[in-house]
Structure formats: C-alpha cells, structure tokens
TrEMBL record:
The gene is MYOM2. PANTHER family: MYOMESIN-2 (PTHR13817:SF22), TITIN (PTHR13817). Residues 227-322, 355-450, 455-548, 551-649, 656-753 form the Fibronectin type-III domain. The keyword Ligase does not apply. This is Myomesin 2a. Residues 437-458, 1278-1306 are annotated as: Disordered. GO terms for cellular component: M band. Gene3D superfamilies: Immunoglobulins.
C-alpha cells in the first residue's frame, strides 16, 4: 500500500466528511447508546401553608429508563406506611409526588441507572413552614449509587401476606401461551424454568415456586428436531459478532447434523441465512455486518429428516467498535465541565498506523477458526482497516481477505485444510499507507478442541409426590465446558423415551413432573455442551410414582355428634395428605376450655373417625384435638376444636349427619354421601334433605323436595368449574334435625383422564362384568365396589379382581337381584370413582348366553352350484374356522363320506366347507345337511333339494355335462349373432374355439349352403357372413356348422319376427344418422323430394309429413325409394302442395327428421311452383332409348345410346359405379348434334359389369338414369345377384352437386 499525499486542507476536508457522516448516523445510535440519568425539569421551591396538600413535579431522562425513588428526610417514602397520605405517579417520564398533610420536611428524588457508575451531584429544593412564615434552604443531593435489580433493597411494609392460592407445575407447548401470574405469548423453550412469586412483608417474605415445562411444538417436518434456544451474540465489533446457542434435546429424532444461523436487521422481517453449510458446533462467527446497524439472530437445527422451527430471535445488538469508548478520555474543568479527548489526538501527527499485536486464534473448531488481534497504536489519523495473510509450512504468504475490508480485530477463516498447520499475520491499513506485518501467530490447526462431554454417572430416582419423581445423578468425569443436562424418561415396558426437560438444566438433580400416578418409570441423563449431547447414561432402576413417605397431615373438622351429659361423641375428617401410606390410627386429646393442659383420651389407636369421650363433667366446656398416624409415625395435631358444652341432648329431632364425602365428581354432577346421625331423637330417622350452595354464598338450595331414605344423592345441573359446599339434615317423625357440618368445598370438574365404568361380557367365559380403569393409583390404593353405595360383602354370584390400574366386578351367576346401581371408589387418590346402573334390558344376558352356548357363525348357509362337466358342489362358509374343526355331511338321514363319486373338503383360511357330487342324477334328490363342531361352538345348515328346484338343478347339470362333451371338439365359444356395419351391411358373426387347420366351416340358409366370396377362416377364432342390401327377402333360418374328426357343433340363427325388426332398427339407426337434408328434384311428372342415406329399404319405419300431417302414398303423392335414397313424388304440383315437408326415420329408440320448406318467398318473387314448371319444361332430360338392365356375353360390344333434350343444350356425363367414365379405346363416349349420347364398350369383360348411369343437365335442371350391366361367360346362365356382393353407394357426385344447385335456385 502506497502512502497518499497529505496536506492540512485534505485533513480538514477528511474530518469534516467524517463528522458529517457520524451526524447523519446519529439517529440510528440514539436508541442503543447508554445515557446517564439526568433531570430535564428539576424540582422547584414551593411556598405553602402547613397542612395544605402540595404536588411536586419533575421530568427525568436516561437510557435505559432510570428507576426513580422519593425520599423524605433521608428515608425512602413508603406510600403504604400511611395510606392516603402520599401519592406517587409516573406518566411518560413526568414524575409527581403528592402529600396531603404537609409539615416541615425535605423531599429528595433519586434516579437509579442500572448501567451507570458515574457520580452525579444534583440539588433539590426543600421547604418548611414555621409560624406561618415560609423559609427556604438547600440540601446537597449525595452520590448516585449503582443498584442491581435483583439485589435492590425492598423495604418491608406492615402488611401480613398469606398465599391463598398457588400456581401449579405447568406444561406448555412451544408456540402456545401459558398463564402463571403473568402471560407469555408465544412461549418457547427459552421460557422453561423455575418461576417464583415472592412477597416481601414486615416480618419476612412469603413465596411460592413452580417449574414451567415447555414441550415440543409440531415439527416443520416429521422427525425434524426441536428448535435451538438461548441465542445470544458475544464479542460484538463493528462488522463481526459471535453467535452462540444451546442445542435442543433429541430423544426419538435423528441426531442433529448441524445448524443454520440467520440474521435480520432491526425493524425488518427479512431473514438472511449466514452460513451456506450447516455448522456442527453451537457457535458461529457472523461477519460482513454494516457498522452502526442493529441486528437480530436466530438458529435452526438440521437432521436427516429436515430443518427445525427457528429459535426465538436474539436481543438486538448494534455493530459498533468496542475499542472506540476505550480510546476516550474525560477531563473535568472546575468540577463543572467535561472535555472528551480521543487517544488519536495525543498520538501526534502520525499518518501511517502501527502494526497490530497479539495475533492469535480465539476460537478453533473443525468448521472454522476465528482470528483475533489487538488494534495498533498509533492508529494514524484516518479510518483504519486490516489485511490478513496466512502461510502453511514453508510456503509463501497468501492474502485471505481479498474482497473484504475488515474494520474490526476479528475475522473467521473457513477454508483451511484438515491436518495442516497455519500461521497468520495482520497489516493495519489506512488511506496513507500500510503498517509493517504483525508478528506471526502461533501455528494453528483446525481441530475440535474438546468434543462432547462424557456420559453422566449413576442415575438414582426416588419418590417425590404422587405425580413426580426426584432424579439425581453424578456429574460426568469430563465435563468440557458443560452447559447443562437433558433428562429422558420412559414407562417400563415401553420402547420410546420422552423428554423430561427441553432446556439444559445446570444442576445434577431434577424433579420430573407430570407423571402418571402409580405408573413405573426409568430415567436416563445426557450432558450438553457447545459440541452437542453426550452419550446416554445408564438407566435408573425402575421406580413407581408414589408420594414420599411422611407422617399424615392434621385431621380437621371436629364436630359433636351426640352428648348424654357424661360423654360426648365426636367425629372428624381425614387428613388431606396421608403421607404416602394408609392412615391406620387416630389419637384424641381433651382439655377444659379454661385450662392449658391436654390429656390423652385413648392410649390405644382408634381406627375409625369417631370417638366417644367419657367421664366428662356435665355443664363443662371441653376442647378436643386429634392426631393421625401411619407407618411413618404420628402426625401433627389438629387445631383445637371449638369449645363444646357437655350437656345432654333431649330434642325430639335427630342430630346431625356426619362424614360428608363425594364420589363421581364430574363437570355437571356429583354424588354426595354421608353417615347416619348418632343421635336419632325421639323416633327413628326416616329420610334426609341435602342442601347446596356455591362456595362463599349463604344461600342454600334444597336439592330434593321429598326426603330420601338412602344416604346418598346425585346433584345434577352443576356449573362446570364452580365450587360448591353441602350440608345434610336428617328427618324423623318429629321434624327436621340439625344440619351437618359444612362439607369441604368441591369443584365440579372431572379429574384429568377420568374414565367411566365399562359394562360388557367376557368373550371367553360369557360372564357379565363391570370394569374401571383408574386414571391415578398408588401402592396403598384399593378398589372398593358398592351396590347402591353399600359395600358388597361375600356373595357367591359376584367376584372382584384387580390387575394393575383396572378392577373388574364379575357376575358369575347373574340374577334379577343383581340389578341396581354399582359404584367403585379408588382409595388414596383424589377421588377416582365411577358408577353404572344395571337394568333389565336383556342385552348383556343375551350376549352372555351366546358366549356360553357358542354357535359357529356362518357367512353363507348351505347352498349349491353347478360346475363344469355337470358336477354339483354343495358348500357353506363360516365366519371363522379353527384348524381343529370337525364336520359331516348328511344326505337323506345318511352320512356321506369322501370317496367314489363324492369329494369332501374344507379351507380354514376362507371358512369354506364343501362336498362335490361327480355324477348328479335323479337319485340325488332329497335333503342335505352339514353339522359343524369347532371347539365349544357348533352349528348346522340344511338344504332341501326336491320338486321343481331339484328338476332345475338336474337340468342344468345335464346341460353342463353336454357342454363339457361339446367343448372337447371344435365348438362355438359364442353362438351366431348379428351386427350392422357403417355401410348398413348386416353381418352374421360367431366365435369358435378348439379348432385346427382341418376344421371345416359351412353357412346354410333354409338348409341351402351359402358360399361367401371370402371363405371363412376358423383359425382366426371368428367367422362372419355379410348380407348386403338387407330386406324382407333375407328372412329365414341361418345355420353355421363347424366340424372335424373330433366332432361337430352347430349354431342356428332365425331371422324373423322380433330378430328381423331388431336388424331393421339397427340399419335405421345408422342410415338415419347418415341421412342428408331433403333436396328438390324435377321430374317429368312434377317434382320429387329426395333424402340420401347410407342405405334405404322400404322395411324401415319412415314417415313423410306435410304441414305436420302424415302423407299416405297416392296417385298425387307417390312414396318410394332406392337403395341410396328415399323419395316422395308430387305429381302436377299446385298451390295446395305448398308448405313444410319432412321425413322421419325411426330406429325404435330415436327418430331422425329431415325437412324442406316448399313455400313462396315474398310479393316480388315468382311463384315457386311456377318456376318449377318452367324448369321442368326446359330442363335437360333423357327422351328415350336406354334400358334398365343389360345382360351381355363377354367379348361382345355394348352400345348404350339415348336421345337427350334440353333448352339450352344440356351437358352429358357417364358414370360407372359412381366414377366418371372417360373416353378411351375400350370405352368410347360420344355426344352428337346435342341430341344423341352414346357409350360404346368394345369386347366387354366381366370387369365391365356394374352400375352405369347418365347425367343430363342444364341450368334448369336435369335427369339421372341408371342402367345395370351384367357380363357373363360363354356357356353360363344369366347371372343373378349373389349374397355377399357389395352394394352400390348411394349417389353419384354429379347428382349430389346438381341437387345442391337446384336447391339453391329454388
């Protein structure tokens, strides 16, 4: 780099541009540059009277926003210490302090900035009032002290705080929301952790903590990993940051192969991927940032299944040179002014920078190496950038950043070769030149420094609560910069693991929540660092989810049930927490209400929750307390009861019911149960009333209008989620007694995972049973079954069995006495219970009988079918058969076995049982039965085959037998049938099989053989006989005979009746579709309407109409046709014949219609019929001389001559088979004098046979005359048309053209 020339003017210009650029960028930095707290508007002095309210205002600024506190006389002002006296507000940076009873005091305001450590001196105004004379004085504001938020001193208030409700351990889904005390939307893995609510009071603190678990959201692709978390940017420079994150847990997904890092400028939604290939470690250096711009970063994990959802974006970071602030010096003048000086100003007039120092690799990984160095000193008096060079071994130095200007002393290098060592050196460059190279770095090789940690040590799981387990483990022997641990669990017996946490946990102990009570689990742990996850630890020993053993909590709700003046009967409620084992003992203490000394009531344990305390003094007040005990010991005593007076009860009404409990708590209903009162009053208890109220309400509602005699009641119509309390009153003949003690509040909400009782029938034994699967259970839990809420005792008709979480009540011998309401309660749970009412509907009884007396179910009963060769197959199909099935066929009361003439078999896979009779005869008439035994099940099916049913089966069998014999030789696979081709030729067709070259095929009509022009080819598998120009003459019986040395076969087809009509309709369908529009033709007799079509025969159903009226053939209107067309002749037309004409051709399904409008065309036009008469008078026509048919022997000459006439002279054209005849030596065409037309054929041959025609026409019209010529050989009979001869097409081209001209003229 060469030094550029320098002058004072250029430096001034350079600094001017630099300052201008920095001023332009200043607004971008304002939000990110820290700023010390300051008063924009300070407190001002006030003059007020004593006991007069006053307000103090001030405005503050600072970044981040300062914390503001008010002080009075040097002590913090606490508004709660004197409610109503002080009021503090803060709106948009304006702070207000109001006092209502002013005395002489000084008020100060402190600003606390979390980032500033500078001292600041402010002055605040204070005031006092003495003898109604205002006095002013100032107090210096001391030092501004740095406070860390988490260590801020919170001065206690005088409030006593009790946590009435607590948030529970919570489970959220990534991307959703969760509500504890605050709401977080969306909640991500970063939010997982322990949350604590802490309230500071005068006597200490009250707090509650709970863990928030965040599970995986739905992956972007099946099997893709979860999102990374805790994305942060470190080592921030002007164009470089180092992004780090924590890896997600992978339990059942494929291992993570790398990560993509994305960046986004603040204020934009556009994310740009920073790395082209996934980086394998949880760090990535991002370079190429723009100085002064703010950025967010996020990370996505990659595995073989796809890419994860993106992580939460990082906090905003601004690309600024961290060394800039270190090169500033602040000099204070007179304690009031600050002068800021750059180190550059103290370097002297140095333009070329010094060389960088301390070049080293700060990050070394397989993927990249990050080079770091210290900036030069001096830096020169111009913007600075760096040039980096590398060398490997003894090679030459190579520049790395050829296209990048580096402004920060960090640079990531990616393209280093594995296994090679490199050295690096750095140059400092500005516009004046380049420094010397720095000292080379130490050799650097691109290798992973550490790798993943070793696996954690022994994992131990112990009891914690009924839905959680405490897991602890030994730290790995090689932690290698450990980030934390992931804990996985699985149900014992299951293969798949589930994650217990989704954010690395830093400690070696963890409480796994959300487990199924009573289920058994195993756990494992993985260690996490920047390189990923370690190997899994060994599994813990299986552990059942049960509460840790402890003494029970205190009983409560002590109440008096009865008193006789010398004793009191007590009852109490069970402890809310049993301590993980069954409560099996209670101990009662008593004392006089005016004494402090407690005395034991019972030395031995009481197992029930009632106790009669005797030897009391009548009229004395007593207090009682109760302790509960379990296998862990005796728990704490209850709170003393209310004083109870030992006074005999003498009222006639009954005493209170007691021990209210609940069962089957659901969203809209529950069952209340209670025990009968100990004191019954003057007569026996006859019923009970139940009252209900919402918690906190005193308005009780009686649920039953009439007293119930049993001790339970179902409350319905509850509001889901609402909490209720209940009380019960007993009734006797004297009236309603005392109300019971209020029940515990109960929430109308089912337990999570609650299942109802299932009523069904055992598929193997046929026993009716009731079954309940508990949603939670513990080791001490028991299933207690009741009928009508009374425990079921020993009963031979029922049995109870329990397996795991499911209990079954089985009715071995059901009876009508077993009908009723059955319920079950799972003890030592939060109220798992259910009920089911058995009614006399017969459904289960029928099913039970069907299972105990099983029947082999059949898909199809016994049936028969006729097979080839005339064999008859009798078969049935069962829904299912076992390999051990047995069966037998019985015919006319005799068992038939498999042998000669009978084949019996079965197929277990399809369930088919069958018997095949080879030769079915009249002797086989009768009843057929199949009897089946399959294990305990059996069935039979019968088929009666007699009378007409048998005769039909026998006839079909004989036919199939004959068919089999027939098919041994040549035969018809399809018998004769007809088709019609597009040219309306009728084809009699058939298909043959099992033929050979020697097989013969003959056609017959009425026993006369037909020899078609094309011999039939039996080897093709199909034969056809064409019948051209089909008409009534083709009536008759046609026969095809196929034969060779193996036999013969015959097919007969009768063309008559309906078959004939079907053929005519098929012809009409094709011909009608091909029919042309009606055309007008002039004739000597008048005019003719013609319709050309593929084929026409008078047997076709055609109707001519005039003005929608059907036309009958007459002398005036003659109807006819040729093979090519249908026509209608109008002789001597007149005005009556004017109008609309149509022809209808019906094929039995569809009618084809063609029309022609024969009408005048306006006043100025000549009458249509008159013009036709003129045309008829002067048109070209054949006057005479031509025969209809000519028969001539070969080698003779044929002369066809006729006289033609027309005015003007007509044109003459000859045709043969629709093809125009040209004049040649063999065929000579002449037209003499405009009158005589001739066609001479010299030495005719059979090839000259055909249909000849002459077309004579002029501008008024013409005529078309046909002649049929037949040439026969010498000695032969005059030939007749043969079957199979192709017919002549419909119309000549000339005629069609002329007809079109006539139509246009008309």
């Amino acid at each position: 780099v060469q030094n550029a020339p320098c002058s004072a003017q250029s430096l001034d210009a350079f600094y001017f541009l630099q300052v201008r650029d920095m001023m332009a960028k200043r607004p971008e930095y304002l939000d990110d540059i820290p700023k010390m707290p300051d008063f924009l508007v300070a407190l001002r002095p006030h003059t007020v009277w004593e006991k007069t309210p006053v307000k103090l205002f001030c405005t503050v600024q600072g970044n981040p926003r300062p914390i503001v506190k008010w002080y009075k006389g040097g002590a913090p002002v606490d508004p709660l210490s004197a409610p109503g006296k002080y009021k503090i507000e803060n709106k948009y940076g304006v702070h207000m302090f109001k006092t209502c009873t002013l005395k002489h005091h000084t008020y100060k305001k402190l600003l606390f900035d979390l980032n500033s450590i500078e001292d600041d001196v402010k002055r605040v105004q204070s005031f006092k009032s003495v003898d109604n004379q205002p006095q002013f004085f100032d107090i210096p504001f001391l030092q501004l002290v740095l406070l860390i938020l988490s260590n801020t001193v919170i001065h206690p208030s005088k409030l006593e705080v009790t946590l009435l409700d607590r948030f529970k351990v919570s489970f959220g889904v990534e991307g959703g929301s969760i509500s504890l005390v605050c709401s977080m939307v969306p909640v991500l893995f970063d939010d997982e952790g322990l949350y604590t609510l802490r309230i500071f009071t005068k006597d200490g603190t009250a707090e509650h903590s709970a863990y928030l678990f965040v599970s995986d959201a739905a992956p972007s692709a099946a099997g893709a990993p979860g999102a990374p978390m805790s994305v942060k940017a470190y080592d921030i420079n002007s164009d470089y940051v180092l992004v780090a994150w924590k890896p997600p847990n992978t339990v059942n997904e494929a291992a993570i192969s790398g990560y993509f890092v994305d960046r986004c400028e603040a204020g934009s939604d556009t994310w740009v991927q920073c790395n082209d290939a996934p980086v394998k470690v949880c760090k990535y250096p991002v370079h190429g940032l723009k100085v002064g711009r703010s950025y967010h970063f996020r990370v996505r994990a990659v595995n073989s299944a796809g890419i994860s959802r993106p992580s939460r974006k990082s906090d905003k970071v601004t690309a600024l040179d961290d060394a800039e602030s270190q090169r500033l010096q602040v000099i204070k003048i007179e304690g009031r002014y600050d002068i800021v000086i750059k180190d550059d100003d103290l370097e002297g007039y140095v333009t070329i920078p010094g060389e960088p120092t301390d070049v080293h690799a700060s990050e070394v990984f397989k993927s990249y190496v990050v080079l770091s160095w210290s900036p030069p000193s001096p830096r020169g008096r111009a913007p600075l950038w760096y040039v980096i060079e590398k060398v490997s071994g003894t090679g030459a130095w190579q520049r790395i950043n050829t296209a990048v200007k580096l402004h920060s002393p960090r640079y990531p290098v990616f393209d280093l070769q594995d296994g090679q060592k490199y050295q690096f050196r750095v140059y400092s460059v500005n516009l004046y030149g380049s420094s010397e190279a720095s000292a080379p770095s130490e050799p650097v090789e691109k290798v992973d420094e550490d790798g993943v940690p070793s696996a954690p040590g022994q994992v131990i799981a112990t009891r914690n609560t009924k839905s959680s387990v405490f897991v602890q483990w030994d730290a790995p022997k090689s932690p290698k910069n450990l980030m934390g641990y992931y804990i996985d669990g699985r149900v014992v017996g299951a293969k798949e693991w589930f994650p217990c946490n989704h954010k690395p946990f830093k400690h070696t102990r963890f409480v796994v929540h959300g487990l199924i009570p009573g289920e058994t689990y195993a756990f494992r742990v993985q260690a996490v660092n920047v390189f990923g996850l370690s190997e899994e630890s060994q599994e813990s020993s299986p552990i059942a989810v049960e509460p840790a053993l402890a003494t029970p909590s205190a009983p409560f709700g002590i109440t008096m049930l009865s008193c006789d003046g010398a004793s009191i009967t007590l009852a109490w409620k069970s402890p809310k927490h049993c301590g993980g084992s069954k409560v099996n003992a209670y101990y009662v203490d008593k004392r006089n209400a005016d004494s402090l000394v407690w005395k034991e009531v019972n030395q031995s344990a009481i197992t029930e929750r009632t106790c009669t305390v005797e030897n009391l003094t009548e009229g004395t007040f007593y207090e009682f307390k109760v302790q509960a005990g379990n296998m862990a010991g005796v728990g704490v005593p209850s709170a003393p009861s209310a004083p109870m007076k030992c006074e005999a009860w003498t009222m006639d009404e009954p005493g209170p019911a007691y021990d209210l409990s609940f069962s089957e708590v659901r969203g809209h209903s529950l069952v209340v149960l209670w025990k009968a009162p100990v004191y019954t009053g003057a007569s026996a208890v006859t019923g009970y009333f139940v009252e209900m109220a919402k918690k906190g309400s005193s308005e009780f509602v009686t649920l039953n209008e009439e007293a119930v005699s049993h001790r339970y009641l179902q409350a319905t119509g509850l509001e889901e989620g609402a909490t209720y309390v209940f009380k019960v009153r007993a009734v006797n003949a004297s009236g309603v007694g005392k109300a019971s003690q209020l029940s515990e509040p109960v929430c109308a909400k089912a337990l999570p995972g609650t299942k109802e009782i299932l009523a069904s029938v055992d598929e193997e034994t046929g026993d009716i049973f009731l079954s309940l699967e508990a949603c939670e259970i513990c080791e001490t839990s028991k299933f207690v079954w009741s009928k009508n809420y009374k425990p079921i005792g020993d009963c031979p008709r029922v049995s109870v069995s329990t397996k795991g979480r499911t209990s079954r009540l089985t009715f071995t011998s059901p009876d009508k006495d077993d009908l009723g309401r059955y319920s079950v309660v799972v003890t030592d749970t939060d109220g798992v219970s259910g009920s089911h009412t058995l009614t006399e509907d017969g459904e289960f009884t029928s099913l039970s009988y069907a299972i105990r007396h099983p029947v082999v179910p059949l898909k199809h009963g016994l049936n028969y079918e006729i097979l080839e060769k005339g064999h008859v197959r009798f078969w049935l199909q069962a829904v299912k058969l076992s390999p051990s099935v047995s069966y037998r066929f019985i015919v006319n009361d005799k068992e038939v076995t498999s042998g000669e003439g009978h084949k019996i078999s079965h197929d277990v896979a399809t369930g088919v049982i069958q018997m095949t009779v080879d030769h079915f005869t009249r002797a086989n008439e009768g009843t057929y039965t199949v009897q089946i035994h399959d294990g305990k099940a059996k069935t039979q099916s019968s088929l009666v085959l007699v009378g007409d049913v048998f005769k039909a089966a026998l006839k079909e069998a004989e036919f199939q037998r004959k068919e089999h014999i027939r098919k041994q030789g040549p035969h018809f696979s399809e018998y004769l049938y007809f088709t019609v081709t597009e040219d309306c030729t009728v084809m009699l067709a058939c298909k043959v099989a099992n033929v050979k070259k020697e097989t013969t095929f003959h056609w017959y009509k009425e026993d006369d053989e037909i020899v078609p022009e094309t011999p039939p080819n039996v080897m093709s598998g199909a034969c056809a006989l064409p019948i051209p120009l089909f008409s009534r003459k083709d009536h008759g019986v046609y026969k095809a005979v196929l034969g060779d040395d193996r036999g013969k076969d015959t097919s007969v087809f009768d063309i008559s009746g309906q078959v004939f009509d079907d053929i005519i309709n098929a012809i009409a369908h094709i011909a009608g579709a091909s029919a042309s529009d009606l055309v007008l033709q002039c004739t000597p007799e008048g005019i003719r309407l013609q319709c050309y079509m593929s084929y026409y025969t008078e047997e076709m159903k055609t109707v001519w109409k005039h003005k929608e009226s059907k036309i009958a053939s007459s002398e005036k209107m003659r109807i006819g046709g040729t093979a090519e067309m249908a026509w209608m002749q109008i002789c001597d037309p007149s005005d009556k014949e004017k109008g609309h004409y149509s022809i209808e051709i019906s094929d039995g399904v569809k009618t084809h219609t063609r029309t022609f409008d024969l009408s005048g065309q306006g006043k100025e036009g000549i009458n249509t019929l008159s013009r036709l008469n003129v045309s008829n008078q002067y048109r070209g026509r054949v006057v005479g001389g031509l025969p209809d048919v000519v028969t001539i022997m070969e080698q003779k000459s044929l002369s066809l001559t006729c006289t033609v006439w027309g005015e003007p002279t007509p044109e003459v054209t000859w045709f043969k088979n629709e093809q125009e005849v040209a004049s040649t030596e063999h065929t000579k065409v002449t037209f003499d004098g405009g009158k005589f037309a001739s066609l001479v054929i010299n030495q005719v041959t059979p090839d000259d046979s055909g249909k000849y025609s002459i077309n004579v026409r002029n501008k008024y019209g013409g005529e078309f005359v046909e002649i049929t010529v037949s040439v026969y050989r010498h000695g032969e009979k005059i030939p007749e048309p043969k079957l199979g001869q192709p017919k002549t097409p419909a119309a000549t081209p000339g005629e069609a053209r002329w007809a079109g001209l006539v139509t246009e003229r008309e």
